Amino acid sequence: MKKTNLILLLLLWSLACHSQTIDEAANDTTITTEYNDGVLWLYEDIENVTVGTTCYKIKDYGKQYQIHIYIYNHSDTPLLFDPTKVSASLATKTGDTLQLQVYTNEMFQRKVRRSQTWAMALYGFSTGLSAGMAGYSTSYSTTYSPNGLPYTTVTQHYDANAAFQANMVASHQIQTLGNMMQNEREVKEQGYLKMNTIHPGECIVGYMNIKRKKGTIMTVFIPVNDVVYSFDWDVR
Fold first, then answer.
1. CA 134/CA 122 separation, integer angstroms
2. pTM of the model
3. What PROSITE patterns is this protein classified in (predicted)?
4. Domain containing residue 224: CATH number
């Protein structure tokens, strides 16, 4: 994750998804709110470290809550951000509390790869089947017996060159799809939060996905060093 100096506004994503609303009753008085380009952010500043979040509902290889996280270190000591420590809980309408799956970069990349592998296999089967049949053609001819009864002769032909060309096209299509899938994984990985040491005067911005379930209030816990920052979002 590229580190920068307080250029949060330049790093906000433009997403075609649904922004969540703050749960004003649950968030304490240390939480401040701010709108950037119509997007609601929550901020909490503790011991010279500012952490901000926003939340969306998205469809990204399944239904997810996507949280964008901003961490600015204006203390005089380096800080460690470990995304494996981020957690989230969800209050339900029945009063229960569910622990949600927060995906690290490695976990989400595995999820994407599994989905892409299935898609590639199905596409390869379909394309290969079409290419395999491309060299074959069928002709029909009708003749008549001496007593005037018609009968049809069916002849199947095989064109090796047509089959070769079809297989070349199919291989190119599969390779192109594979490259597109790899590019998609690389784009997702560039923005996904990873472990970072945040030096004084530096900040990081990135996102993490959380498996979506039905509920009312989602609480996100973000530990930075020994301090846990918590944010409540109304996700009804």
1. 19
2. 0.65
3. PROKAR_LIPOPROTEIN
4. 2.60.40
